[in-house]
Amino acid sequence: MEICLVNGQPGHISPDHRALAYGDGLFETILYHSGHLEFLDDHLARLMHGCAALKLHWSVVDQTRLIAQLTELTAGLWEPHVIKIMALRRYPGRGYGFDKLAQSTDLIIQIKPYQKPDWCFALARVCLASTKISVNPSLAGMKHLNRLDSVLARAEYESSQFDEVLLCDTEGFVMEGSMSNLFLRVHGQWMTPDLSQCGVAGIIRKQLLDKFSEIQVAKCHVDSLRDVDAAFVCNSLIGVVPVGRLNQRDLSVAAEINLFRENIGIPC
């Protein structure tokens, strides 16, 4: 089943919408699997936090209405689907400025069948991209619509060469994948990059940090990748996928990866 609704009705946004002109908005991608919207509370909490940070009009009433819509739209579905939610700032006229009291928020809901890529059932081939990630603490953690860093990074390689590419900041610290968060084991210690300056605070990343206190959040310089002996990438659609090859170097598959996957209840 495929659905696309704008404010609850079939339609489209205006060509002069701020979301197109400035990327003024946020999005969430939620996996629907076996009758469940996976990690819905975490997705909605991140959406609420992002709206507050961007000063987008979004209330508890809006959140409640969204939950009711999602429940109705997915009723009767069983096969895996991906639900994409976009909250877009609408404001008349042109220019960057807006009146916080006069703005409104357009809500887009897209639902499409989903099948995990084949590589998610094996080992991921991962490499570094030369594209640098944009650093802005004011936007760090959010899943905003400005994803050009990832677009350029993905364009560096054909998908047949690598399954995921990693982005560093201008100081050489590894931050995340183009579509995933990164976890590394260095000298026996599991860690994930500090995203206080940039990057997306992913849902699976949050689950893992909440449930496994031994995982450290730390800076990871690109030079330290040579000391990595195991790694995995993750997001709310692909789950947890071990890295089998990192920058042309083979990695072992650590037993802890299955433990991480099982303890956060990621569907296969």
Notes on the structure:
The protein has 6 helices and 14 strands. By secondary structure, the chain is an alpha+beta fold. Strands 6, 7, 8, 9, 10, 11, 12, 13 and 14 form a 9-stranded mixed β-sheet that branches. It has a 5-stranded antiparallel β-sheet with strand order 1-5-4-2-3. It folds into 2 domains: 3-113, D-amino Acid Aminotransferase, Chain A, domain 1, CATH 3.30.470.10; 118-263, Alpha-Beta Barrel (D-amino Acid Aminotransferase, Chain A, domain 2).
List the helices and strands and how they pair.
Blueprint: E1 3-6, H1 18-22, E2 25-33, E3 36-37, H2 40-54, H3 60-74, E4 81-90, E5 104-113, E6 124-132, H4 148-155, E7 164-168, E8 174-177, E9 181-186, E10 189-193, H5 203-211, E11 216-218, E12 228-235, E13 239-246, E14 249-250, H6 255-263
Parallel strand pairs: 6-7, 6-13, 10-11
Antiparallel strand pairs: 1-5, 2-3, 2-4, 4-5, 7-8, 9-10, 9-12, 12-13, 13-14
Instruction: Report the structural category.
Output: alpha+beta
Per DSSP, what share of the residues sits in E-state strands of 2 or more residues?
25-35%
Number of helices: 6
Question: Got a strand count?
Answer: 14
- What radius of gyration results from the CA coordinates? 19 Å
pLDDT below 50 for ≥5 consecutive residues: which ranges?
none
Distance between the termini: 21 Å
Q: Please state the average pLDDT score.
A: 95
- Helicity range of the residues? 10-25%
Shape: globular
- CATH structural architecture of the largest domain: Alpha-Beta Barrel
| CATH fold category name of the largest domain | D-amino Acid Aminotransferase, Chain A, domain 2
Which CATH top level class of the largest domain fits?
Alpha Beta
What would CATH call the homologous superfamily of the largest domain?
D-amino Acid Aminotransferase, subunit A, domain 2
How many distinct domains?
Answer: 2
| Helix and strand pattern | EHEEHHEEEHEEEEHEEEEH
Main beta sheet strand tally, sense and closure? 9 strands, mixed
